[in-house]
Structures are given as C-alpha cells and as structure tokens.
Amino acid sequence: MTFADSESSKSEPSNEAQKPMESKRLLRFETAEEFRSRPNYCADLEPEKDKPLQIFGGYGFKKGAYVHCGLVGCKQYHGAGFNVVNAIGKETNIGRCCGKTRLGAEWAEMEARFQKQTTLQALQDVLAEAMRKRQETLANARKLSSLVEAAHRTVDTIIAAIASDRPLHKAFLSCQKDRGRLSYFRKLDADERALYPGQSTVRTPMGYIDGINAASVSPKLIRELKFKIIVPLEELEDDSLALLSHKALAAKSLEFGAMGGLLQTAELFIADAEKLSRQKNWENFENFCVASQVNMSANAHRILRGLAGTL
Ligand SMILES: [Zn+2]
C-alpha cells in the first residue's frame, strides 16, 4: 500500500463505518493480497442487500495479476477496480464495469464522490508538502529578495550610465529590442556588390550583450517577493489549511505554485544581472557601436570602458 494505513488498528467494523469517509485517506492497493487480507474482506458481497456502499480505495493491476470481482454471483477477472465498504464495515473489490452494471446510478454517484475525494486528497498533499517546506521557502525568498535588490542596483547603475549619452542609449535600446543581439548592416564593397547585384548592405553579427533581459525586469519583483511569498508564509498558521473549503484549497494550491515560479524569476534576474555586468559585454558593445557608426563621443567611450572596468 502506498499510503500510510490509517485503519491498521481497526476493530469493530460498525465503528469504522460511522466515521465519515471524507476524513480518511483513500487507499491504493498494490496487490490483491493487501485488500483480501483485511479483516472485513468479503469475497461475495451482495450489492443489492449490503448497502450503502462507499469507495475507500482502488487498484490497477497488470495483465497476469487480474483479480476476481467480489460481487456475489460475479466471478469476472479484471485489472482496474475499486474497494468498497458498506454500512456495517464489510469490504470487497469491484471491477469498474461491474459497478456500473450492477449498481447503475448509485455507482455513478459513488465514483463521482471518490473522484472528488481523490482530487481533494491530491490538493491536500500538495499543500502539506508546501507547509513542510515553508521555512525553507521563506528563507530562500528572503535571501533572493536581498540579492534581487543588489541586482537592481547593478542594473540601474549600468542603465543610468548608458542613458546619460543619447547615441549610446539609442544603440542600447535597439539592441535590447533585438534581445541582446549585436548586429549591424555593413556596406558591401565594390567586389561584393558585383557578386550580389541589387544588394548594398549585409547584416553582420558581432556577438551579443549577455544578460540583457535583466534590463527589462520590473522593480515590482521585489514587492512581489514580499507580498506573494514572504508575508503570506510568515502569516500562515499551521492548522489554517484544515478549515478551508475545496475551492479555497485549490486557490491556495495555485498560490503556492505561483511562489515557485516567482522564486525562479528572481533567480533568473539575479543571474542575468550578473551576466549583464560582465566586462566582455561592454567591450563587445563598444566594438559594435564603432562598427555600426554610432556617433561615439569621447564621453561615450569613457562610459563603456568604465562599465568594462578597463578605464
Ligand atoms: Zn463483477
């Protein structure tokens, strides 16, 4: 069995049956022996008499390990089926098709309830995992938050330096639009023009500005880390999830999922900012500006060499 068996201390079948199924974990059986060896297993349940039935588990066995259906009078073999329990705690296993045939609408309801509970349980598992990792996530978000702040300072300094020179800024913006690619249209010489009639320029690549995406990351990232991760996790109570409705749990699960995405965005930004500040970028960019005939003043050269650390 995959799930921790909450029923191992089971004694009186009737007591067990009175507990609402919703409060218990659904079981998943890996072998037929696992459910047949349960104390209240019954190999020939009469579905017309032994009501009401509720699904408390399921299984899916491979060919060669098919099992008998546990409904009285039916000895069909099947691979995928459900484990049911009745009002007085009697249990058996039923093939999916048999359920439909013998119990009709009642079975449809049972199956729908089971599916709903399966979804709920999966949500609860996701949230329980998120709760377990809460301190770790919180510590990570706090650490990334201060790194993001530092990365913003780095990026802002670079952008401010470039923006202080109009031609340089224009060249940078067009490169940013081209996702960091540095390429310009070089005029063809006489020999080349003879070779390519009707063409006067050729696009010439000169590398790229690495980490350029950092230049377009919004400063609201820092607020998002705070208000979508740090504050909600700090305020989360250990048992608060137990009281939530199915719908609220689903919303909460999305909220936790989004936290992971946000942390990734932060990591990416930090890495991009580090790349953006590399010396090689600004050497490349200076070469590109010269080659593509940007109107480079002495000041523009000084700015780029300052960024490259080669002043
Ligand atoms: Zn059957």
Structure description:
With 311 residues, this protein is α+β, with helices and mostly antiparallel strands. The protein folds into 2 domains: 13-110, no CATH class; 133-308, no CATH class. Helix content is 53%, strand content 13%. It has a 4-stranded mixed beta sheet with strand order 1-2-5-6. It has a two-stranded antiparallel sheet with strand order 3-4. It is elongated and about 95 Å long. The model is unreliable at 1-22 (pLDDT under 50). The site of zinc ion has 6 residues, from loops.
Keywords:
2 domains; 4-stranded mixed beta sheet; binds zinc ion; two-stranded antiparallel ribbon; single chain; disordered N terminus; 311 residues; alpha+beta
Major sheet: arrangement of strands: 1-2-5-6
- State the total count of DSSP E strands: 8
Bound molecules: zinc ion
C-alpha geometry: elongated
SSE-based structural type: alpha+beta
User: Mean pLDDT, nearest integer?
Assistant: 88
Give, in order, the helices and strands: HEHEEEEEHHHHEHEHHHH
The count of helical stretches stands at 11
Separation of termini? 68 Å
What is the alpha-carbon Rg in Å?
33 Å
